[in-house]
């Protein structure tokens, strides 16, 4: 009997956070459907336990020895810098082992832009490697010019809380200095160090981005023509290309039954992703503002997301009364299903890139309350470029919350945004259908990888 030729195998390295694991697993699924075998190499942090969707995949753990507490204590920027240093040697051992076992099969490594150690290791083995940007093209552009902006003193206002952060960044219209992807909990020097590494293409043969040209054509053109001299493939939104279960937390589906009882476009969905933290006072003001808005709301309060609390135990008694009338609170929701529900008319979000894509993909306009990094960029684009979002800036009090919710859910302004969101949804859907730009990009990428 003739041996079947081995499928070409790709080693995929996700970053250890929900918002990065999901798009990587969606990409893995899409590439598997195109005929590749898949190995997922992950660290122990936020370990993704594969569901039945991934039975054909190989999962390996990169044996780093960072203490579990580092993930919480260092927060993203410092943690990622340390993780990359720590993982380089252990991933080299891992990949070496894989190559010993299946050297003829492995045709390349695809790594999250924040797991750049994998690119360095692939280079040592002369393996083709590809950067996967799980955030958006505009954030990639910002990170690419960050050093130059710093050298030209444009970032100076970020070092001083009284600096003029409302000024536009030269060449990055409509981003203001405060919209740049920075973080209040890391020093500018450390952010510069991290970003320099994430945009260093090293020996990468191409960059794939979880975006669509209908959302970010000028940023993509800049990357293609000026920023990078390797092919750039916008192949997203990947959740529309390969739908699969990627949640790290248990989803409470009872909220769908609650939504079934609500009127069309009557509910505001409130969710701040998997990492953002708020103070108790912000939680209380949000509750009061939602209550005063007279709108129904579905609120995800992730355990540990209110500083100093396990969940909502430190909130005053009135909190339960406030939410029990028009509200419904869960610890984790089936977010994509929620956004697709006809009762949901708006999304109060931290504007992580996945949440942004998922909301646009269902034509749901947003209230934008970014916390850090690319979320600032996404919020600005939602408000000023796609014009389907209202950004809430500065101190959060009940009046601000009530006003924003009414503008989006009750007033004509919100209706206009909803219409624009629906029209953008159609463009996004068309881009992943046969003949669409993201569909074609994925085909080109698969062809490119098959010829390496
Ligand atoms: C992180 C960064 O914060 C974000 O800026 C970056 O763009 C991606 O990585 P995160 O903060 O978790 O991600 O936000 P986001 O990108 O929105 O991803 C959250 C994911 O969790 C989404 O896919 C969302 O559907 C899912 N989710 C969230 C749920 O499934 N249920 C919930 O209740 C909340």
From TrEMBL:
One of its GO terms (molecular function) is glycosyltransferase activity. It comes from the Eukaryota. SUPFAM superfamilies: UDP-Glycosyltransferase/glycogen phosphorylase. Keywords: Glycosyltransferase, Transferase. Pfam families: UDPGT. InterPro entries: UDP_glucos_trans. Belongs to the UDP-glycosyltransferase family. This is UDP-glycosyltransferase 76E11. It comes from Cardamine amara subsp. amara.
